[in-house]
């Protein structure tokens, strides 16, 4: 299962960054998430998560809010 590091800006509903890590890189992804949380933590507008999925398409289905625009989310 791949690990995906997502940096998401809540106010705009947009991805700031999206990085895929290999099956064995969960610890690396979590360490990077911790670094980014310290960096963005004060803003309150940035969400940093690590999610596991078989591939990006599975992640897009299970966590669609990270991949849709605000208008897409409002219209559903």
Could you characterize what this model shows?
By secondary structure, the chain is α+β, with helices and mostly antiparallel strands. The protein has one domain (2-75). Helix content is 37%, strand content 32%. It is built from 3 helices and 3 strands, in the order ββαβαα. It has helices at 26-40, 56-62, 70-75, and strands at residues 2-9, 14-21, 46-53. It has a 3-stranded antiparallel sheet with strand order 2-1-3. The longest helix has 15 residues, at 26-40. The radius of gyration is 13 Å and the shape is flat. The mean pLDDT is 91.
Largest sheet: 3 strands, antiparallel
Q: How far is it from the N-terminal to the C-terminal residue, by CA? A: 29 Å
pLDDT < 50 stretches: none
Rough outline: flat
Structural class: alpha+beta
CA radius of gyration: 13 Å
Strand content: 25-35%
Count the helices. How many? 3
The count of β-strands is 3
> How many domains would you count in the coordinates?
1
Mean pLDDT: 91
Q: Strand order, biggest sheet?
A: 2-1-3
Approximate helicity band: 25-40%
Q: What is the N-to-C order of secondary-structure elements (H for helix, E for strand)? A: EEHEHH
């Amino acid at each position: 299962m791949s690990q995906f590091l997502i940096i998401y800006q809540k106010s705009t509903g947009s991805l700031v960054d999206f990085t895929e890590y290999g099956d064995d890189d969960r610890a690396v992804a979590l360490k990077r998430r911790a670094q980014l949380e310290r960096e963005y933590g004060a803003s309150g507008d940035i969400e940093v998560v690590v999610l596991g999925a078989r591939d990006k398409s599975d992640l897009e289905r299970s966590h669609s809010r990270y991949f849709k625009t605000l208008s897409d989310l409002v219209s559903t």
